[in-house]
Amino acid sequence: MNTSILHPDIQEFIIQNTGADLTKLALQKNPFPDVEWILILNQIEARTKAKEKLPTWFSTSNIIYPSKISVEQTSSEKTAAYKADLISGQTLIDLTGGFGVDDYYFSKKFKAVTHCEINADLSDIVKHNFNQLEVKNCTFYSGDSINILEESDQKYDWIYIDPSRRNDAKGKVFMLKDCLPNVPELLDFYLEKADSILIKTAPLLDISAGLSELKNVKNIHIIALENEVKELLFEIHKNYSGEITIKTANILKEKTETFEFVLGEEMTFPLFDAPKKYLYEPNAAIMKSGGFDEVGLSFEIDKLHKHSHLYTSENLIDFPGRRFEIQKAISYNKNEMKIELANKQANITTRNFPETVENIRKKWKIKNGGNLYCFFTTDVKDNKIVLICTKII
């Protein structure tokens, strides 16, 4: 860890240039010749990225940032805070501590948190930052987390792991066994050290693939931020063998949309119908969950088609996703498209439709934007239709 960047003049320079054009800045002469220019530029770049993602770090003085990749890969404060509300206890050990954002929030819920990080420099940075952030209940270990667990007799309430993909796994189907640490291989060992484990994975992991590699899974959490899926969480409890619950959360500025269902639970089939007055599009977390039938049944709304994943109702309801009022439903043919949409402006979404958004825009000369929202989809009778809607805020 290079502490020279903590000099008050350098810190002031970093603050003043946060958000500046780094390409232009890099061409300037280094005003602090005793410190590498690239180090200062890296701090400016990382702090700029932290402004929205990590406001607590951004607003705290004398924070040291690691590489911009570490900042990009770390949890946002919003998802970290959500995670910390899911679990609680006396002790937690984070086997892949990274920049420590998750542990900052875990420290508010647990009496003692242990941060393990294989990169010694990053471990020192987090330790320094936690002093600045006034976190007093976190212990830091640098080294391989397997060795740290093996050398300790302590048993923890929770183990938290955020495995990273190995570089040689590029191009392969994403599996947990292709990550470090190899959680499936080490799971029995981990369960000797804690009765509960929370595993964070990238959103591109297939849920069924994750379940095929793991055991004792009780809950799977799908966390989206502003309708973009950011994390999957597999919650494991020793000796658990009951039903698995999928819990989705879409964290928005003013609220968090939640929806949950039991995986594989027997249920009646959803109802299908033609478009009614209102249209509903599930948020990204629900789309990732695959709980499309469960949504229709839970909210008592009709599906347009088995594979369309759009829903409709005569009366407006609260819904975890986007809501629209259908102004007109037309058949997808040359005559209707010429009359209603050709050469106009609209936001386009396709669901269970054979053409891409790009092809539709080009074919009918539809400009992007405006107040109209058009869904190109397939109805219950397998007809290709277009729903021309206005968005309900």
UniProtKB/TrEMBL annotation:
Domain (THUMP-like): give its ranges: 321-391
Q: Name one GO biological process term.
A: methylation
The answer to whether the entry has keyword Methyltransferase is: yes
Q: Which Pfam families match?
A: PG_1098_Fer (PF22013), Thump_like (PF18096)
Going by the UniProt record, its keywords in alphabetical order are: Methyltransferase, Transferase
Q: Which residues form the PG-1098 ferredoxin-like domain?
A: 278-320
Q: Which CDD domains match?
A: AdoMet_MTases (cd02440)
Any GO molecular function: methyltransferase activity
The protein, known as: Class I SAM-dependent methyltransferase
| Lineage, highest ranks first | Bacteria, Pseudomonadati, Bacteroidota, Flavobacteriia, Flavobacteriales
